[in-house]
What does this fold into?
Amino acid sequence: MIELKDVQKQFGRKKVLNGISFTIEKGEISCLVGVNGVGKTTILNAIMNLTPIKKGTITIDGEPLTPELYNKIVFIPDASISLPHFTVQQSMDFMNDYYDTWNVKRAKDIVKFFRLNPSDKLRDLSKGNQAKVNLLLGLALDVDYILMDEPFSGIDIFTREQITEVFSSYLVEDRGVLITTHEINDIEHLLDKVILLDEGTIYKEFNAEVMRETEGKSVIDVMREVYNG
Amino acid sequence: MKKSLKSLLNLTAFELDRMSKFLYILIGITLGANLIGYIMTPMRHVSRLNEYMSTQSATSQQALDYYGTFTFYDAINTLWIAGPIALGVSGLLIYSLFIWYREWMGKNTFAYRLLMLPVPRMQLFFSKLIVIYLGIFSLIATQISSLFIGFQIVSAIVPTEWFADMSALQAIQENFLFYYLLPIDLMYFLMINGIGLVFIVVLFTLILMERSFSVKGIVMGIMYGASALALTLFPLFLTDIFQNQYILYGSETIMIVASMLLVIAVTSLFVSRHLLNKKITI
It folds into this structure.
């Protein structure tokens, strides 16, 4: 379980996160939603120890994040994080060199699923294909938790459909997934938990399906209520 | 092989591969400029002597009396030789900054990947440090090889009677740049490289301060760098500070400076470790 307790973060004098607490369980798909600048990416960065927090604790299965735990949790940011002159294959080899949890067979399956060419250089790929490589490098690891930042950002409808398929496939099965996205409609039906952020705090935490059934509202409806007052 | 050592070697090989083009260019420029220097400088001297002989109808001895013999020291004491050394030093200094900042540059933030590797983050620090030092030693090795080639070239160009009997080693010992850069005097070589190593460790620490605290980090870095410099230089002024009450021998001063450098290096490594583990920001 990923557990955040009273996490606080400030940029200069601006409080970005003000006492954030939630948990992510294995086998559960959760989504952080909120308008731009509400702190979604900061939360993911904080979980991965890529930005320091001012106060609070973040633990992965009860332990604070150590380098060894990067074999257990992976973060897929919205920008390409491999070297542009690398080919897809070289990027995979790089991962294989450092991660004990790199699964060669799964990597091959994902390359096939996304119809990627291993000999293509990353700098020559379209934004959509770069996003697929990002997903490939994250999903081919046998990790327990996957964090994804805006996986649908700036990509075409067909690529988006392909990526959406990932969320209902064996690739995320039994894993704890935490995702941030503005394209909530595409994956709303797959979500176990929605964490709605507002002004650095958790405004509401709910199950999208239950919300629809009991109050007849979609996630977007709930967001409208919050942000449009 | 122990896992952490394997990942350090992997990272070092990876960084070395990324530096290879830049290093090949520096080595190429060094070799090229040195060869030009080893050919042009003695040829100019020989043609001057020949011209003197033909215009003045002088004998070889008279020309030699007028211009003097050519030594290997004359061949190495030129901009063709000193220039590439300056270029190498400044090039590697700039690369010491670039080796960190490139990870945050452009659309592809490779810092994400590096900081999320399942290895202690100090391995990133050490792999970059090792690579910079491999660069320094590669350039020193290039200079040493080119010195021996150069000596053969100069000996072939300058006629024996015009070439002073001076070995390559003697010539190098008289050139202050080579004296400090090449392993001629082991003590000096260790000292210069020790100072260089601490300088790069401190520089890396300053970069990490900036990457962790942004503008505040620059101020902290300036203060930290100034303190490190003051601490290194302070033993040199000890005698003045104590108004000649205690006069230190040269070896004692060196020992105190070396101890200060050790303190600065160890402190910088601890600070860097803390910054990489707790403060660095993407």
About this structure: The longest helix of chain A spans residues 127-139. DSSP finds eight helices and ten strands in chain A. The first strand of chain A starts at residue 2 and ends at 11. The two ends of chain A are 34 Å apart (CA to CA).
